Amino acid sequence: AARLPPPPPGGKGGGGGVLRREGKPDRSSTELVDMNSAADVIPLEPGWEKMRGGIDKFTAIMEGGFRESFPLAMHSELYTCCYVMCTQKAPHNWADELYKRYGTMYEQQLEQTVLPAIKAKHGTEMLREFARRWKNHKLLVRQMWKLFVYLDRYYIKKISALPLKAVGVQKFEQVVFNQVKEEVRTGVLQLIEKEREGDMVDRDLLKQVVDVFVEIGDWRPLFPTRVGEEIGDIGQARLNTYVKELETQLLADTSAFYARESSSWIGTDSCPEYMKKAENRLQQEVALVAAYLHSSTEEKLLKEVETQLLANHQSALLDKEETGCRALLREEKTDDLKRMYKLFQRLPNSVTCGLQPISQIVREHIVDVGMSHVRKEEAEKDHSMYAQQLIDLHDQYHAMVQGPFGSNTLFQKVLKEAFEVFVNKDIGQTSTAELLSTFCDNIMKTGGDKFEGEIDTVLDKIVMLFSYLSDKDMFAEFYRKQLSKRLLLNRSASDDDERSLITKLKYRCGAQFTSKLEGMLTDMNVSKDSQNNFAAWMRTSEVNLGIECAVTVLTTGFWPTYKVDEVALPAELLRGIDNFTRYYESRTSHRKLKWIHTLGTCVLTGRFDQKPIELVISTYQACILMLFNQQEEYTTADISSTTKLPMDALMKYMQTLALSKYQILTKSPKGKEIGETDVFTFNRAFTDRQRKIKMSLLVTKVSQDEKLSTKQTVDEDRKHAVEASIVRVMKARKTMAHQQLVLEVSQQLMKLFRPDPKVIKNRIESLISREYLERDKDNQGVYKYLA
């Protein structure tokens, strides 16, 4: 009885049905069954002759363009024949011989038919024939695998030989590919260069040919040579043929092509024109890869293009005098800057390559523009708008960093560095810290009316400028004094805005930085409650002062130190002070009130001939005016002795009362200077359109003396801060060298100010003299902490 094989791949039926057919039986099939039935063996030569006949039949159909299909019955017969020849017992098992002849069959077919057909053609037609022959060969390999599949499933696994499909691909590579690969590669590269030059090419043909280089490697069986070999390594190895035989030369030709092209562009094109061409070329290369190259080539190909078009000419491109990076920044060409950023972002960053050279040019440009503002402002007398100019300048370049430069951290860094250069330049004798604080003071007084309700945005911008200051403590001291005047003179437009700015500063510099400012606001809220309680106490105690009296109680540590002038107050004010002192002492213990009239205000009614007018003046001005309720005229010396005000301070107050816009007093003799013997009388003829006028209080202006006082206060605070930092560091380290100590202390204090190394050295000496530190006996440059 004949052995019945498993059904062939793609065949129908099962068991003995493979060998049966409806109608007239096939003669060869009948003979095969009879032979097996009789001898139970298929000899090698007759069996191979039958297999060869089927192979030739399929080859003829394939060469004819598949105008007819391969007979299913023949497929089944050939599969069965191979199966029987491979499963016969030795010495009639022909599996080994069939495997050898399987490979020889490919060699003969490729040498006799395929290779001559390809070599007979040239140029594009050769490529077309090469692609067609590879396509047919794949079909042949697939069909032969179906016939000889038993070998693949059992015999090859047993002896660890090359799989059948791999044998087919290997033979094509050895017989055909290796013979024509140079011509094919040349043809492919020529077509690619033609497309780069603008000619139309057959992309489908290129895709088919390039795929041959890829598929020959992909079909090759690659077994890991070591345990744990990565799958990615195997995938890369499968592209070895493509990389070695095509990609390497493609990359070299690409580099040469763009080297030539970029050399011609750089001499004639402007920077924007060059970048547009480079951008277009990069897009074309991406499209080229997508159309017919392997995806793994894209990164390597673009690197070659970027090197030739961008990296090799970056310096010359950026430094073009009229169209380079500096010119684009001057003319605010945002589209071109954006294109420049996107192009050079592709390159690795270094001093001469990528985004770093661009960022340095941006930094230099911003510094130049900022310093020009500084020089221009130094020539002006009024610096009130300087802070606004800095904000506008920052808005301009911040928008540039956010827009064309994509918020890149490198450009954010250079923006910060550039502003730190000129923001910390003094304008004449005035520091930017003071000007910025004064700008905040004006905004807080007006409530942001000029900013159309966008006060919070303006405050954010102020805090951003503040972050660039190296002397943040100087800003804090000026701001504290100005805040105190706004609060005590009731000049602040909005408590919410005051708290908002302090919160933003706290977020930037920490709670310690704003603790005094927050304490001042808290004092004002507590004083409002205290004032209500005082009014209730007076009603309960049946005290009638005859005037409205409001007292603000301040915590000493929060508020600036004010100069206290001994002044003889009018009886009306003394009654208010005495009663509030009684009230306060009844509510608290262990606290002492110290009365400061410097920032006090009074509202007096002046009874002039035409009409009474309310005058909003300072406490000291009120003390002077109320003297004229007692007598008609006083000399300057009389006023000084009666009020006990120092003569230099009195002169200033008399200027505001007799020689200013509102001349409440009349001076004799007339003149702009005030002498000790000058006589002052009440000006009954004075009048004004308004019934209530606010006179100059002097205290609202920042005098030179106050500036000097503020700087002295800051210097003293810095000494304490430096000493505290030294002690903290030494307490943690115990022993430290001088340079290391100076460096670490500087780093700790950098958030508030830049400490002078000389100051640090002096503070170290001071701590040594007070026995907090001592020098090492063996090394005078090393300090030890004394617990």
Automatic annotation (TrEMBL):
InterPro entries: Cullin (IPR045093), Cullin-like_AB (IPR059120), Cullin_homology (IPR016158), Cullin_homology_sf (IPR036317), Cullin_N (IPR001373), Cullin_neddylation_domain (IPR019559), Cullin_repeat-like_dom_sf (IPR016159), WH-like_DNA-bd_sf (IPR036388). Residues 1-10 have a biased composition (Pro residues). It comes from the Eukaryota. Residues 431-658 form the Cullin family profile domain. One of its GO terms (cellular component) is cytoplasm. It holds the Pfam family Cullin. Residues 19-29 have a biased composition (Basic and acidic residues). The keyword Ubl conjugation applies. The keyword Ubl conjugation applies. GO terms for biological process: mitotic cell cycle; proteasome-mediated ubiquitin-dependent protein catabolic process; regulation of gene expression; regulation of primary metabolic process; response to stress; signal transduction. One of its GO terms (molecular function) is ubiquitin protein ligase binding. Keywords: Isopeptide bond, Ubl conjugation. Residues 1-32 are annotated as: Disordered. Belongs to the cullin family. This is Cullin family profile domain-containing protein. The lineage of its organism: Eukaryota, Cryptophyceae, Cryptomonadales, Hemiselmidaceae, Hemiselmis.
